[in-house]
Amino acid sequence: MRHHRLGTTGPHVSALGLGCMGMSDLYGPSDRQESIATIHAALEAGVTVLDTGDFYGMGHNEMLIAEAIKGRPRDGFQVSVKFGALRGPAGDWLGYDGRPQAVKNFLAYTLRRLGLDHIDIYRPARLDPAVPIEETVGAIADLVTAGYVGHIGLSEVGTDTIARAAAVHPICDLQIEYSLISRGIEEAILPRCRELGIAITAYGVLSRGLISGHWQAGSTDPSDFRSRSPRFQQGNIEHNLALVEALAVIARRKSVSVAQIAIAWVAAQGEDIVPLVGARRRDRLSEALGALEVSLDAGDLAAIEAAVPKGAAAGERYNAPQMAHLDSERP
Fold first, then answer.
1. Does the structure show a pLDDT above 60 at 91?
2. Secondary structure class of 149 (helix, strand, coil)
3. Quick check: is 56 catalytic?
4. Helix (H, G, I), strand (E, B) or coil at 164
5. Cβ atoms < 10 Å from Cβ of 309
6. Which is nearest to 143 in space by CA: 196, 174, 112, 106?
7. Which residues fall within 8 angstroms of residue 223, CB to CB, at 6 or more apart?
8. Domains of the chain (ranges plus CATH)?
9. How far is CA 270 from each of CA 14, 164, 202, 267, 275, rounded to the nearest angstrom?
């Protein structure tokens, strides 16, 4: 397993991270024992980053990870936690809370659920429009000083917010969607992060399975949010799967899977970019790990660009209400 430093101030992390959300929430039913086995397999393969959110399954995901990491050496993994999203008992979304007192409250519950004395990387899931980012980051900085948090990250914020946050405390990484069909960060956000020495932890590298090579139209469970996601809707899904088939031609030529090509492309964009893969099963994890062995030369990259040009996807990456919460999408 290769390792990179997460920004100029962050920890050294594996070149691939494991996103754990789907083990608890939003992607339909999952198998608890297989989820834990997948986390164990990732750790044994040298993956160090376990990414979660305190609102994934309303705490369920943190408790699942706690079970998986119990008894393991603390220096063998890093837990990255997003906070701030508010949810009702029916799983509905109620907004975001970035107030300093809320930040400290969220962390107290996270530490208890995970059974840890500190969180390696702590980040607001979204910008709370009612609270200046300086106040939210300042509260996390207090927790760094107190030893409860190792490093501060951000999630789905734009260039102005990134700069304002970094002026308060060093930021190690920005977690944001980045894939062959979600390349919006390339214009301004990625250059600003590089200017400030901030890494990217890229989620959605397979666009929620859309460009994994395994997706079949009409296969979503009603509890799976992809059943309502724009890129998976009739009229868009057919167009997007045609892009995947074009990518499959390149994958077959290289004797690798479509998912491996898609992950390798993200990893090839720079050592300051760490792909997060949302594998819920050991076979999918194994496939994703194989992407680290895929070498893409200039000819491969040109062929991939021709097969899936920038901006080629049909449909937004979230529905309109969710897009409205993304500071990263504001002009």
1. yes
2. strand
3. yes
4. helix
5. 14
6. 106
7. 28, 29
8. 3-208+260-295 (3.20.20.100)
9. 14, 24, 12, 6, 11
| Mean pLDDT computed over every residue of the chain | 94
Active-site entry in 56, 96, 203, 318: 56
Helix (H, G, I), strand (E, B) or coil at 173: strand
3-state secondary structure 223-262: CEHHHHCHHHCCCCHHHHHHHHHHHHHHHHHHCCCHHHHH
Beta strand pairing call for 171-177 and 199-203: parallel
Cβ neighbours of residue 80 closer than 8 Å, sequence gap 6 or more: 17, 49, 50, 51, 52, 119, 120, 121, 122, 123, 153, 175, 201
Cβ(79)–Cβ(114) under 8 Å?
yes
pTM of the complete model beyond 0.85: yes
Region 274-298 average pLDDT: 97
Contact call for residues 84 and 19 (beta carbons, < 8 A): no
Taking the CB of residue 49, how many other CB atoms lie within 10 A of it? 24
pLDDT at 196: 98
Reading the block at residue 98, the tokens are 């970035």
pLDDT at 28: 80
Q: Each residue of 111-150: pLDDT tens digit? A: 999 999 999 999 999 999 999 999 999 999 999 999 999 9
CA-based torsion, 215, 244, 264, 200: positive or negative: negative
CA distances from 61 to 6, 53, 57, 74, 316 (A): 24, 7, 6, 18, 27
